[in-house]
Write a structure and sequence with these properties.
Elements lengths: L4 E8 L2 E8 L2 E5 L1 E3 L12 H6 L5 E4 H6 L3 H6 L3 H5 L5 E4 L2 H7 L1 E5 L4 E4 L6 E4 L1 H10 L4 E3 L11 H21 L7 E6 L5 H14 L3 E4 L8 H11 L9 E3 L5 H9 L4 E3 L2 H7 L2 E4 L2 E4 L19 H5 L2 H9 L4 H26 L3 H12 L5
Parallel strand pairs: 4-14, 5-6, 6-10, 10-11, 11-12, 12-13, 13-14
Antiparallel strand pairs: 1-2, 2-3, 7-8, 8-9, 15-16
Bound molecules: ligand 2YW and zinc ion.
The ligand COC(=O)c1ccc(CCNc2nc3cc4nc(N)[nH]c(=O)c4cc3[nH]2)cc1 binds next to α5 and α11.
C-alpha cells in the first residue's frame, strides 16, 4: 500500500463509517482528532489522550517550525518519538496558522513570508518547505500548503485565492515523498461559492490525493452556511477517499457534518474551552465557574465514564477553577476529549447499524437543553 488506505465499511444516507490505515495504525471513522499544536495536547499526557479513545492527533507545522524547529524534532526521532505518541499523526501545513497568528506577513505566488509571533524572526513558507517540514516531523498525513480564504470574500477574491491554493496543491504533490503508510491530503477551497468549490474539487481530484480536506470553513460563516457549503461540495467528492472538515467543531457541528458525509474532524474547542472551565455534556454545556455549581455534588455528566466524572463532583471542579489550580483545566480537558470520543463512537455504531438519523436526532435534541 503506498500512501494511506481507506475502506468505506458502511453508509447510512450520506453518513459514512470507514477505516483509515497508516504506518502507525488505523483510525475508525467518523473520527475526531484532538489538537496537539506544539507537540502536546495541552494539559494531557499522551496516555491520557489514548485513554479517551482518540486514535490520531493533529500537530501544527507553523508552531513546530518556529519552536523547536522541524530539524530538531527529526534529530530527536520524529514527532511520534518526541511526544511519545505511537499512533497516527496528521499535521496542518501552516497557512491557516500564519494568517491567524503571525504579523507582518506577505503572500506571493512563491509562498508566505511572516514574522514569528514568538520572537519576531522572519520566516518563509512555501509548499515545498511545508511538505519538507511535515516529512521531517514524520507526519502520517501531510496537508498541502493552502491559503484559507478569509470570510467574507467576494467571488472574485475567492476565485483568485482558490486558484493559488490549487497551484500550491500541485507543487505540494510534486514535493511529497511517497511512502507506504504515509499520505498527502488536498484541501478544497472556494469559500461559499458552488462553482468555485466544484472547480476546486475537480482540480484536486485530477492531481490525485490520499484524502481531501474541506478548508475555508469554520471561519465565522456560521453553522447554517457551513452546512450549506457541505451540501453542495460533498456530493462531488470522491467516495473512496476520506473527507476531513478542518477546524470543526462543537458537538452539533460534528453531528451535522457526519450527516453530510464528513469522515474526519479536528478542533481546539474541547481542549481550549476545557481549560477555561467550559464542559461539553450530553445535555449542552456547563460553565463550571458559575456560582451555582459551587455546592453541587453531582458529576459533570452522569453518563460519562471519564476520570473527572467518575471521581469528582461539580463543587470540587468549581473550587479548582476558582483557586486557579492546574488540576481544574486538566480534568475538564480530559472530560471534554472523552465526551467527544464517546460522541464519535456513538455515531460510528449508529451508521454501522443503519440507525444514524434516529441516533443523531436524539443527540441533537438533548444538546438543546442548554446550560445544565
Ligand atoms: C474555544 O474554541 C476556539 O477558540 C476555536 C477557535 C477557532 C476555531 C475554528 C478553527 N477553524 C478552522 N481551522 C482551520 C484550519 C485550516 N487549515 C488549513 N490548512 N486550511 C484551511 O482552510 C483551514 C480552515 C480552518 N478553519 C474553533 C474553535
Ligand atoms: Zn466526564
Amino acid at each position: 500500500m503506498t500512501g494511506i488506505g481507506f475502506e468505506l465499511l458502511a453508509t447510512d444516507g450520506r453518513a459514512r463509517r470507514g477505516r483509515v490505515t497508516t504506518a502507525h495504525g488505523s483510525i475508525e471513522t467518523p473520527a475526531f482528532m484532538p489538537v496537539g499544536t506544539a507537540a502536546t495536547v495541552k494539559a494531557m499526557t499522551t496516555d491520557a489522550v489514548a485513554s479517551t479513545g482518540a486514535e490520531i492527533l493533529l500537530g501544527n507545522t507553523y508552531h513546530l517550525m518556529l519552536r523547536p524547529t522541524a530539524e530538531r524534532v527529526a534529530q530527536l526521532g520524529g514527532l511520534h518519538r518526541f511526544m511519545n505518541w505511537d499512533k497516527p499523526i496528521l499535521t496542518d501545513s501552516g497557512g491557516f496558522q500564519v494568517m491567524s497568528l503571525s504579523d507582518l506577513r506577505t503572500m506571493s505566488e512563491e509562498g508566505v513570508t511572516f514574522k514569528s509571533h514568538l520572537d519576531g524572526s522572519r520566516h518563509h513558507l512555501t509548499p515545498e518547505r511545508s511538505i519538507q517540514i511535515q516529512h521531517l516531523l514524520d507526519s502520517n498525513i501531510t496537508m498541502c500548503l493552502d491559503e484559507c480564504t478569509p470570510f467574507p470574500a467576494t467571488e472574485a477574491q475567492a476565485e483568485s485565492s482558490m486558484r493559488l491554493s490549487m497551484r500550491w496543491a500541485r507543487r505540494s504533490k510534486d514535493a511529497f515523498v511517497e511512502r507506504p503508510g504515509y499520505g498527502l491530503f488536498g484541501i478544497v477551497q472556494g469559500s461559499v461559492y458552488p462553482e468555485l468549490r466544484a472547480e476546486s474539487v475537480a482540480a484536486l481530484s485530477d492531481i490525485g490525493f490520499d484524502g481531501y480536506a474541506i478548508g475555508g470553513l469554520a471561519v465565522g460563516e456560521g453553522q447554517e452556511t457551513m452546512f450549506t457549503v457541505l451540501d453542495f461540495t460533498e456530493p462531488a467528492m470522491l467516495k473512496q477517499r476520506p473527507r476531513y472538515l478542518m477546524g470543526v467543531g462543537r458537538p452539533s457541528d460534528l453531528i451535522g457534518a457526519v450527516r453530510r458525509g464528513v469522515d474526519m474532524f479536528d478542533c481546539v474547542m474541547p481542549t481550549r474551552s476545557g481549560r477555561t472551565g467550559q464542559a461539553f455534556v450530553r445535555r449542552g454545556t456547563i460553565n463550571i465557574r458559575n456560582a451555582r455549581h459551587a455546592h453541587d455534588d453531582r458529576p459533570l455528566d452522569a453518563e460519562c465514564g471519564c476520570p473527572a466524572c467518575r471521581s469528582y463532583g461539580r463543587g470540587y471542579l468549581h473550587h479548582l477553577f476558582k483557586a486557579n489550580e492546574m488540576l481544574g483545566p486538566m480534568l475538564l480537558t480530559w472530560h471534554n476529549l472523552h465526551y467527544y470520543q464517546d460522541l464519535m463512537r456513538e455515531m460510528r455504531g449508529a451508521i454501522a447499524e443503519g440507525r444514524f438519523e434516529q441516533v443523531a436526532s436524539a443527540l441533537e435534541a438533548r444538546l438543546t437543553e442548554g446550560d445544565v
